[in-house]
């Protein structure tokens, strides 16, 4: 038994650690390849916020890597696992996500940013992201709605980033500087990009909160779980910008998305709370009518009267009838059984037969006499008359 438990724990921790490290390295490789993150740049003091914007990406990569490690380890958790097991698994996910630290510090050795020590700063941001990812992984291990929110927001962030860098993939185009959760596409005007930077993350968090809250409500989760279903994913964006900072430029390049990220977590909770408290349509709240059924017999509240009714003999289903009398040779076919006849089994009571309707005797038909008979009768009457005279 202890050997099996050790094997289960080793598999759980190994999968969590490996997936977290693989997720962190894969995201960094994809970001390097698409030009989303460029850590070898030489930036002047006026463009220092571009370096700060990349720090938000690095912190978010570490946190999302820990989350993916926790989601992968969730399927290997033993049934009825306690908080200690989940906490140990979350720590393992954070350690796996820490692979982002050396993978970002090494290319930052060639970067030159005015007034900043690139290697130290980017290493500190990656470490803070891995620590914050530990708590995010614990949430992913504990709550299903948290896993939904992490996956939805993470997918949306990558879609926005790919849309932003897609125009630069054409020959002769320069790579843009892409900020976390902001549409920085080259085909958008600068003023429009500045406005979208303020509203993209809050709107995304609000929509995802409403959708996830409604999904949790349809699955009959508790009210508290529904209300907090939109928090986890936007909270990663808020934490990433908190690690990176608001920047120091006056053009709002980093400060605008920073304050937008500060409101993202609240917008996500607002959307899920709306899904939890809004009343459903009357068609869904109304109880479906049951098919018509015959009413149940009512009980007599008085037990004495109920006993009296039960002891009262039931009336005979046959009405009293007088003894039928034969007429005109007609005798009813039903006769009483003789005393000597053996007793028969009781037959089910049938409804009484109707009285037969008396039939009038046929009228007497006088015979038609022949002429010879009438002559004989006349002669006999004449002879009898002579004798009397």
From TrEMBL:
Regions crossing the membrane: 55-77, 89-108, 120-141, 148-170, 197-216, 223-244, 256-278
Give residue spans, biased composition: Pro residues: 314-323, 348-364
Keywords associated with the record: Membrane, Transmembrane, Transmembrane helix
Q: Where is this region: Disordered?
A: 282-389
Q: Which domain of life is it from?
A: Bacteria
- Record bears the keyword Transmembrane: yes
List compositional bias (Basic and acidic residues) regions by residue number. Answer: 282-302, 365-379
* Descriptive protein name: Uncharacterized protein
Where does this protein come from, organism-wise? Paractinoplanes ferrugineus
């Amino acid at each position: 038994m202890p050997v099996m438990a050790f094997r289960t724990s080793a598999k759980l921790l190994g999968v969590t650690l490996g997936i977290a490290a693989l997720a962190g390295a894969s995201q960094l490789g994809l970001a390097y390849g698409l030009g989303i993150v460029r850590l070898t740049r030489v930036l002047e003091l006026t463009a220092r916020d571009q370096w700060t914007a990349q720090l938000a990406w690095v912190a978010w990569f570490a946190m999302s890597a820990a989350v993916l490690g926790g989601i992968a380890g969730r399927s290997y958790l033993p049934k009825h696992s306690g908080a200690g097991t989940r906490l140990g698994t979350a720590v393992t996910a954070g350690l796996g996500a820490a692979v982002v630290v050396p993978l970002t510090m090494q290319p930052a050795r060639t970067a030159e940013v005015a007034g900043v020590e690139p290697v130290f700063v980017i290493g500190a941001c990656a470490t803070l992201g891995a620590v914050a990812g530990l708590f995010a992984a614990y949430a992913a291990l504990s709550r299903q709605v948290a896993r939904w929110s992490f996956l939805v927001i993470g997918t949306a962030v990558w879609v926005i980033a790919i849309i932003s860098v897609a125009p630069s993939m054409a020959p002769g185009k320069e790579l843009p500087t892409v900020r976390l959760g902001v549409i920085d596409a080259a085909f958008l005007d600068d003023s429009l990009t500045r406005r979208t930077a303020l509203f993209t993350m809050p709107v995304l968090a609000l929509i995802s909160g409403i959708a996830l809250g409604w999904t949790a409500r349809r699955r009959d989760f508790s009210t508290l779980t529904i209300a907090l279903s939109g928090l986890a994913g936007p909270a990663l964006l808020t934490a990433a910008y908190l690690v990176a900072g608001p920047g120091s430029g006056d053009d709002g390049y980093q400060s605008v998305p920073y304050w937008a990220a500060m409101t993202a977590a609240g917008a996500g909770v607002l959307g899920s709370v709306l899904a939890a408290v809004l009343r459903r349509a009357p068609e869904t709240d109304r109880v479906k009518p049951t098919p018509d059924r015959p009413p149940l017999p009512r009980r007599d509240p008085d037990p004495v009267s109920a006993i009296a009714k039960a002891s009262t003999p039931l009336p005979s289903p046959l009405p009293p009838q007088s003894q039928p009398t034969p007429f005109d040779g007609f005798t009813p076919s039903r006769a009483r059984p003789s005393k000597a006849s053996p007793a028969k089994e009781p037959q089910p009571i049938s409804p009484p037969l109707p009285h037969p309707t008396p039939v009038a005797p046929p009228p007497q038909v006088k015979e038609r006499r022949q002429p010879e008979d009438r002559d004989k009768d006349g002669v006999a009457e004449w002879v009898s008359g002579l004798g009397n005279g």
